[in-house]
Each structure stands twice: as structure tokens, then as C-alpha cells.
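Input sequence (223 aa), recorded before submission:
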Amino acid sequence: MKILIVEDEPKTGTYLVQGLTEAGFVADLARSGCDGLHLGLTGDYDLAILDVMLPGMDGWQVLKALRATGRTLPVLLLTARDAVEDRVQGLESGADDYLVKPFAFAELLARVRSLLRRVHRQPAPEVLRAGDLELDPIRRRVTRGGRRIDLTAKEFALLELFLRRRGEVLPRALIASQVWDMNFDSDTNVIDVAVKRLRAKIDEGFEPKLIRTVRGMGYVLDA
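Predicted structure, C-alpha cell format:
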């Protein structure tokens, strides 16, 4: 497995390369956002570890540029900020997970392995449907009533979870673990914000409404 590390702090970058190499990975290090974007677009990587605070082109810009080209490699964000709005921004920009500095290497390694397991699970090629809503997991395409709907990486993963478990009431804790690979924190509204944004894209202007809230329990999608 080949991992791209984009980190400008020399000590942290060296620490990550050494630790991941000892864990059996091939690790390349870029020390700026521009270099990281270039490697991310031209290299064959299984995962990227991306620091947010980078000189010149920051991590947010690198992430958005990667996603804008259609690159779907998993991205683990490293950030010194733990505010809810920062986490939401990262996840909505297309990050697959985040880790707040300072961190224990054992936790980073566990998150890396979890993201890689998720990506390399056997894909399900069938198109998922609910009423006039269709999601194609292979082409990464969503339509409703024949109209193309553009989703972020996290919105796509969230909708895919809803469709694969159609008719089930999904608690916030389950959504957090399946889509964000994190333990649910009742003090944050990351899940609620994400569901609200997804609803705005797939339900507003369409009938019937597909995603509904089950008070005190979670969310359910059903036509």
C-alpha cells in the first residue's frame, strides 16, 4: 500500500514516514500544498494524509482540487483545530476522516488501516434505487427524476448508507461509525448538519420526501 503524506513540519513528516514504513507501507512525503497536489494527481496512491496548515496552498485547497478532478483516494486530514465548524468543513470538502494534533501514532495507524479496509471491500456494482432516486456506486453518480445531483464525498457515502439500509432507522451513532469512522459525540451536530445538506439536494423540489427524522432515534430513508 502506498501513502502520500503532505506535511510541512519536518519533525512530524519524518515521524510519519518512519512510522508508516515500519508498519509496512510505502510512504512519500511532500512538504508543501503544491507539491502534495502534484503528487496526488500524478502518483498512484492508496491514501493521502493531508495537513491543513500548509505554506502557499493550504490543505483545504489541496483537498478541493483533488476532488474537483474526480480523484477518490481516501484523505485523512490532520488539523490543530477541533472546533465543530472546522470538522464539518473538512468532511464536507471531501475528507474521509480527520485527526486532531497532537495525536498518538497508534490512533493514526488505526484510522489509516480502517480507511483502507473500507476502500478495498468488494464493491457492489448494482445501482441503488428508492423511487426515482438512483445512486451508481461505480460511476459515483446520483440522479433523481433523471436530473443529475452533485454530492460531496461524504454526502455520497451518507446517501449510499441510507440506500443500502433502506427502511431502517439509522441512529446517529451508527451513521458516525459507518460514514465518518468515528465515535458519536452527542455535543456535536456534524451528523445533523450533513443530513440537512443531503436533504436539501435530494428532497427539495421533489416529491415524495425520502429522508425523514425519527424523533429520538435517528434518520430513515424510504420511498
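Checked by second reader. The CA atoms of residues 14 and 29 lie 8 Å apart.
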